[in-house]
């Protein structure tokens, strides 16, 4: 379905070669945006860019590297002329008992799930500020946190630290950037069927089918979200319809936060 809720806007999405980021890239292009897919997955990113056509472009970017973040933003501006939206979405799973986490894992998980988002945000701000000054619609930053950014469960501590940190970032940065008309929000999806799901299931039950059954039973609506459900939430936050929304971390959870 084609529409124009993001007509004329330019977005950079990290981790857009797969899963939730890919669903957001597809929806953004369908809604009239031009999209830069920034990912370490060269094959997946290039495939998606060519599937989406001239309104999408892929840039190889490891968002844990400051220089790569700067280069991705420069690429977006060179390719499409400006930047209205950063969706900082790239992340990686981790589950396991806290006392067994080694330094290498500690640093890697925090690097991918938190430092990457911070570095890409810093890299994008000059372009977002320029664009926000040029249009009454302003600019927008959206993070993919998680329901683990608002709630917690055992054996997810390291991932939970990072996702809670993004919710804190949204609150502080939204206040800092409000005078510049840059809105800052997050989506907080519950477990969703993407390639990442396979990493989470063993933490919940030995049998994957049993883990899925238990997961569904925790959702008041009785079903898990699709990637498109998160894409719908990101689309809303990115669109001008959300012009009064900032500092919000929005659950996409079928009612779990209400419990
Ligand atoms: N799937 C879920 O259940 C779920 C739930 C809540 C939140 N999330 C969050 O959603 C986001 C996307 O996850 P997903 O489920 O789509 O997973 P996914 O594995 O399908 O996609 C993650 C993407 O990020 C990319 N990536 C990884 N490290 C990167 C790096 N250093 N720089 C740039 N790109 C990198 C990967 O190549 C991949 O394309 C993550 O932040 C994740 O924590 C996922």
Automatic annotation (TrEMBL):
Entries under PROSITE patterns matching the protein: ADH_SHORT (PS00061)
InterPro entries: NAD(P)-bd_dom_sf, Sc_DH/Rdtase_CS, SDR_fam
A Pfam family: adh_short_C2
GO molecular function ontology, one term from the record: 4-formylbenzenesulfonate dehydrogenase activity
Record EC number: 1.2.1.62
Keyword Glycosyltransferase carried by entry: no
UniProt keywords, alphabetically: Oxidoreductase
Family statement: Belongs to the short-chain dehydrogenases/reductases (SDR) family.
Annotated protein name in UniProt: 4-formylbenzenesulfonate dehydrogenase TsaC1/TsaC2
């Amino acid at each position: 379905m084609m529409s124009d809720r993001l007509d004329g806007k330019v977005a950079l999405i990290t981790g857009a070669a797969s899963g939730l980021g890919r669903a957001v890239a597809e929806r953004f292009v369908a809604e009239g945006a031009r999209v830069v897919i920034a990912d370490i997955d060269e094959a997946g990113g290039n495939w998606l860019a060519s599937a989406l056509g001239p309104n999408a472009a892929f840039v190889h970017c490891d968002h844990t590297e400051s220089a790569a973040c700067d280069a991705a933003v420069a690429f977006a501006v060179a390719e499409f002329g400006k930047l209205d939206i950063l969706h900082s979405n790239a992340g990686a799973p981790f589950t396991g008992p806290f006392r067994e986490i080694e330094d290498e894992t500690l640093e890697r998980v925090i690097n991918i799930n938190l430092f990457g988002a911070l570095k890409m945000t810093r890299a994008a701000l000059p372009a977002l500020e320029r664009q926000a000054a040029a249009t009454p619609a302003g600019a927008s930053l959206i993070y993919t946190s998680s329901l683990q950014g608002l709630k917690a469960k055992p054996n997810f501590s390291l991932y939970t630290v990072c996702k809670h940190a993004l919710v804190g970032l949204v609150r502080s940065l939204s206040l800092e950037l409000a005078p510049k008309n840059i809105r800052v929000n997050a989506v907080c999806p519950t477990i969703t069927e993407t390639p990442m799901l396979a990493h989470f299931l063993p933490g919940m039950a030995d049998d994957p089918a049993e883990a899925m059954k238990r997961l569904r039973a925790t959702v008041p609506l009785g079903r898990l979200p699709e990637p498109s459900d998160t894409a719908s939430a990101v689309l809303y936050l990115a669109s001008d319809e959300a012009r009064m929304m900032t500092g919000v971390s929005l659950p996409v959870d079928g009612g779990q936060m209400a419990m």
